[in-house]
Amino acid sequence: MADRIRVTESSPAAKFAPQYVAQELGFFDELDLDVVFNIDAGPAGSWLADNLVQNRADIALGGIWLPFAYHDLNIANLAPVAAVCHRNPAFLVSRRPLECVFDWRVLEGKKVLLSLAATSQWMFLEGVLLEHGVDLSKVKFVRDLHIETMRGLWTSGLGDFFLAEPGTAFAMVEQGATIAATLAEAAGPVPWSVYYARAGDIYPEAPVMRFKSAIEKSVNWILDGNQNDTAKIVARRLGAFDVARMGDIVQHLITSGTWQRSLDIDVEATARYAMMMVNYGLLQNMPDIKSGFAPAI
Q: Which fold has domain 91-186?
């Protein structure tokens, strides 16, 4: 009898393609897993961690900062299992072409737009800017408006830069904007999207580890030259009819290093991100990075 795994996940997105591919190609079935994906994550994914705490789900998909915060405050012992995104796939879109090689200090004296539900984006961006010596007092940030509202204001002339997900960024470029930088390149490695679980459920041969194996097989299938089929699968999953545009997004996720063949979580990149969380005020203490991860497959 197959082991049931209940997954609670963030809003559907192209960056989560490995999960959709694993579903489509039967990789979970091959590992004797009955995976359920209908666990309500709440508004903007606000119930992800609580679904684990209340035993409504076995695995959550989202930002690594949430299990770290729960552990830091002794709410629950949650631990990351696998990284599905090893870099932040967002783009920094510019209203006008840059006149020089990109440097983060180009944002000084400018207005930068970030849409609603960009808490982790803002926390990470702030950390990156401080790393690069940017004076935050010289940058005007406009945040927390709905993406469509923000795009409308941008179209009407508000802002110099816009931090956008790939699909939004490509659409903005078609309307005359330019890509100033990709965060994957300009901001460096970070465990951006992870699967996490109750720490007691993470052990060799556990169902959650077989789930990780299925996702890892999916990533390798994508990277083995199957980006076109991946784009079709994701387009169907997201209800996107422009398969060519989805193909561009998938290609970006591949070439940027957002997806990597191993789902093991990089210790150095995670420690860097965790320090940003401490400096931001989300965490009181640095997590025990080296002992807090699931074992490698």
A: D-Maltodextrin-Binding Protein; domain 2 (3.40.190)
Identify the CATH assignment for 3-86+190-291 out of 3.40.50.10800, 3.30.1340.30, 3.40.980.10, 3.40.190.10. 3.40.190.10
From first to last of its 297 residues, what are the pLDDT tens digits of the chain?
899 999 999 889 999 999 999 999 999 999 999 999 989 998 878 899 999 999 999 999 999 999 999 999 999 999 999 999 999 999 999 999 999 999 999 999 999 999 866 568 999 999 999 999 999 999 999 998 888 999 999 999 999 999 999 999 999 999 999 999 999 999 999 999 999 999 999 999 999 999 999 999 999 999 999 999 999 999 999 997 799 999 999 999 999 999 999 999 999 999 999 999 999 999 999 988 776 554 443
28, 214 in Cβ contact below 8 A?
yes
Q: Helix, strand or coil for residue 106?
A: helix
Distance CA 262, CA 86 (A): 10
Please give the model's pTM, rounded to 2 decimal places: 0.94
Query: Which position has the token pair 């965060």?
Result: 183
